[in-house]
Amino acid sequence: MDNTVIVGVDGSPSSLAAVDVAAREARLRGARLRIVHAFSRPADLDPMVHGVLAEAEQRAHDRSPGLEIGRTVASGDTLTVLRSEARHAVLTVVGERGHGGFRGLLLGSTAVQLAAHGHGPLMVVRGREDPRGFVLLAVDGSPSGDAAASFGFAEAALRGAPLVALHVWNTWGEPTPYEAPADPLSVVVDLDQLQERHRRLLEEAVAPWRSAHPGVPVELRLERARVRHTLLDASREAQLVVTGARGHGGFAGMLLGSVSQALLHHADCPVTVVRD
User: Fold this and answer.
1) Taking the C-alpha atoms of 216, 217, 223 and 227 in order, what is their torsion angle to the nearest 10 degrees?
2) Which residues have a Cβ under 8 Å from the Cβ of 33 and sit 6 or more positions away?
3) Could you tell me which of 126, 149, 124 has the C-alpha nearest to residue 138?
4) In CA terms, which of 12, 63, 269, 270 is 20 to 30 Å from 107?
5) According to the model, what pLDDT value does residue 136 have?
């Protein structure tokens, strides 16, 4: 990978806010920043576009003086261009909504499609301005969640922030007991046994990364509740949420899980989706 953070810009307020965040992320990593704009027709490439790019570049310089900044203007639809640019980037940053799409949508289609089909970690800038607090890691024990844990710990270390690893469980998603009951017809679930199993899942999911980042303060939270609501509530105190693209639930073949989508649409701070 190139040591480059890319940010998609279309001149919308959301994309310019993403520039501010991307400049900070590049500074934290000692990386370059590349501002990317896509156009589908030659007529779309007019002096106004260059004015937008100049404004974005100036914002980045103002936020992070001395940052190495480049521009890419490419022909093609936004998703294709950003996917191509993201192949070798350490992080891709976009706003929650651009100029395109339908009024009233909570999240633009580009952000959703990049989260489902993109390359590398994707940060969607949303929620309150300049959020402070811990890095919130959504733990589910999936392969995608393992990649998210690695990223979340590294991000907390870069920011000098504590990390809260939150695993939410409930009996609604448990089709069978974890150990065969003495009576095969029994439908009784041993809640203590179930909770202990989820506690082990949480501890094992973070153990390798906790050892790799001993300087990061870590809080393990295990809650029996509704998954999406609990994670969204926790995002109100976080500066960043880190999640895998999809967990164990949902339908086979889905590239973006319902929990990840809920966070992208409703979290109160930026969300980074990490693919396994």
Assistant:
1) -40
2) 4, 5, 6, 7, 22, 23, 26, 60, 64, 67, 68, 69, 70
3) 149
4) 63
5) 98
Q: Partners of 134 in the beta sheet?
A: 238
Collapsed DSSP state (helix, strand, coil) of residue 187 = coil
Residue listed under structure tokens 């989508």: 261
* pLDDT tens figures, 95-137: 987 554 433 334 567 888 888 888 899 999 999 988 999 999 9
Grouping H, G, I as helix, E, B as strand and the rest as coil, residue 42 is helix
Residue from 249, 143, 275, 156 nearest 205 by CA: 143
Task: Confirm if 263 and 241 have CB atoms less than 8 A apart.
Answer: yes
CA 188/CA 179 separation, integer angstroms: 12
Whether 162 and 217 have beta carbons less than 8 Å apart is answered as: yes
CA pair distance 31, 55, nearest whole angstrom: 20
237 close to 269: Cβ distance less than 8 angstroms: no
- 188 has pLDDT over 60: no
pLDDT-based confidence at 254, cuts 50/70/90? very low
Q: Quick one: tokens of 196?
A: 């202990």
- Taken as a whole, the chain contains a residue count of 276
Strands (E), the chain: 4-8, 32-39, 69-75, 91-95, 122-125, 134-138, 163-169, 218-224, 238-244, 271-274
